[in-house]
Amino acid sequence: RVERDGMIFTLSFESAPKAGEPVMGKLEVTKGGAPVTSLEPVMGAYAHIVGFGESGKSVVRIHPMGDEPKTPADRGVAPLSFHIEPEAGGFVKLWAQLKLDGTEIFIPFGLDVKK
Question: Is residue 36 pLDDT above 80, yes or no?
Answer without folding.
Answer: yes
